[in-house]
Amino acid sequence: MGSAERSKKKVQLWKKAVVHFALCFVMGFFTGFAPTEATPQPAKNASFVAETPVQIPASSAESEREKFLEKREEEEEDGTEAKWIPRRLVVIITPVSNKDEYQGVFLRRLANTIRLVPPPLMWIVVEGQKDSNEASEILRKTGIMYRHLVSKENFTDPQAELDHQRNVALRHIEQHRLSGIVHFASLSNIYDLAFFEELREIEVFGAWPIALVSGNKNKVKIEGPVCDSSQVIGWHLKKMSNETEQVTPPPIHISSFAFNSSILWDPERWGRPSSVPQTSQNSVKFVKQVALEDETKLKGIPAEDCSKIMLWQLKFPTEKQLTTAVDSNHR
User: Which domain of life, per UniProt (predicted)?
Assistant: First the structure.
């Protein structure tokens, strides 16, 4: 009995060993197919190039600053230094009549031109008797630096009313010491934008030719100075037929000249007495008189060719003129 029991125990031990071995083999077999830790794989289009240090470029602001400093050092070595010259203020005066039913149309058209002029610029609009809501609304929407003035006087003569409105604007300039170049711009004026840059070059007085275009008469007149380079040597009226008509006293159109505003409050600076009779009452007349007294102070513009037209004035026929023209055509 003892030997039989021992043989059974041996058989059981072998079975356990075989089962244990089989389990280990199966576990090892399946463990071999299990996924291991993922390794990074290069991209398909990646190029295997050795990494080299890359210089980071300086910012554009730093490069501009370096260029500026280098330029300044060169200027200091040469003994010269660049100076920044600010633009002169251009002061535009426009009288507006409330009796003109198309004033809003012309005011918008002129505003669209003036808003294209680089600053600094001030537009002084003077209305007669009372300010209109239409003009105020147009001026607010232009984006232009402006002053809206009102003349309380009542006139029967349209030209006298316009002159009075211009004097109101000049008194405003004198009172507030608005230093700049003053130009009278009518609502019917049409400009070459380069004209305003020429205005800024004026020191004391400036003059230029103006083309007067008449819509109902189908003709054009050129009025303005006679120049030798930029020096004004006379005045004339020139028709399209090249006929020259000399006029005494010399004509000077209200939109054909400009002046330095400081002459209104500092005339001694320009060789004028400090107190001139009737200057405050009629500043337009005073300025015209001073401009024509000494033509050597006048600068013709454009400086290269004073005969170049940069300003046109359209004379639109009135309702009465249109009615007369229609009646004459029917006769």
Answer: Eukaryota
pLDDT per residue as tens digits for the range 24-82:
777 777 776 665 555 545 444 444 444 444 454 555 556 666 776 777 677 666 655 44
- Hey, how many other C-beta atoms are within 10 angstroms of the C-beta on 196? 21
Kindly report whether the global pTM for this prediction surpasses the value 0.90.
Answer: no
Reported as type and span, the H/E element at residue 327 is helix 319-330
**For 34, how many CA atoms within 13 A lie in the half-sphere containing its CB?**
8
In order, the DSSP letters of 68-137 are HHHHHHHHHHHT------PPPPEEEEEEE-TT-TTHHHHHHHHHHHHTTSPSSEEEEEEEESS--HHHHH
Q: Which residues are CB-contacts of 283 (< 8 A; sequence separation ≥ 6)? A: 166, 167, 170, 171, 174, 264
CA angle 175–181–185, rounded 5-degree value? 95
Q: Are 181 and 89 in contact (CB under 8 A)?
A: yes
* Separation CA 80–CA 77 (nearest Å): 8
Integer Cα distance of 29 and 211 in angstroms: 106
Under the banding of pLDDT at 50, 70 and 90, the label for residue 306 is confident
Cα distances from 77 to residues 72, 81, 84, in angstroms, run 9, 10, 19
Tokens 């000049």 belong to residue = 170
Joined tokens for residue 306: 């004073």
What is the crossing angle of helices 103-114 and 133-142, to 10°? 10
Residues 6+ apart with CB under 8 A from 83: none
| Cis? peptide before 40, omega within 30° of 0 | no
Residue 313: closest CA among 223, 200, 245? 223
